[in-house]
Structures are given as structure tokens and as C-alpha cells.
């Protein structure tokens, strides 16, 4: 799973971004707020990679480059979970189809990790949407 994500992270990062975007849209519709009044996390991989480059570089001139300071909340809201999550969910689904006794312990481990991840989320809606999609 890790090798698959490291060699080609873009499809999984895009999936994570899609669910974060969908969660933001659902929240807007749920609370009937104007789209202009809510901050929708960045969902384009190029923008996120640019933001990471900015964070790695010296923070001098950061306000001029992106227009505002990046807070920890803004970074966490952009991608609240790793691209490993959709890849792991795909692997879990393949293991469930195989139904060998050996893979049962792996599936149990993944369930425990996903449960911990769910409990550590500030806003779990995007992760819940991803779980629902892969079930």
C-alpha cells in the first residue's frame, strides 16, 4: 500500500481532496450559508504542493506570496488525512473479497487504525464520506 502511494500519490491525493471538497459543499448546504462566507479547503493538488513548498522555505515574505499566514488549522483542513487512507481502503476491499484466513488479521488491524484516525479528526465528515464510498 505504501509503495503504491509513494510511486504514484496523485490519484489517492485527488480522491482525498474530492472527499474534503464534497464535505465542504455538504456543510454549506446543511447550514444554508452562502458559499462566499465559508472557507472551502484547497482541493487542487498543485495548490497544495505549492503551499507545502512555501512552508518548507523560509517564511520570510509568506504574507505577500499567498496573501495570508498559514495557520495549523488551515493546513489540517486542507488535507485532514493522508492519501494512504483511500489506498488502504482499496486494499482492505480486495482482502475482503479474497476472504482468506490470513488476511483477517490485516483487516482487523486496518479497522483499528481507521477507528483511531476517525477519533483524531477535528471534522470527520470527509473521512466518513470516504468510508461510506468504500463500503
TrEMBL record:
Database matches in InterPro entries: URB1
Origin: domain of life: Eukaryota
GO-annotated cellular components: nucleolus
Biological process, per Gene Ontology: maturation of 5.8S rRNA from tricistronic rRNA transcript (SSU-rRNA, 5.8S rRNA, LSU-rRNA); maturation of LSU-rRNA from tricistronic rRNA transcript (SSU-rRNA, 5.8S rRNA, LSU-rRNA)
Official protein name in the record: Uncharacterized protein
Origin organism lineage: Eukaryota, Metazoa, Chordata, Craniata, Vertebrata
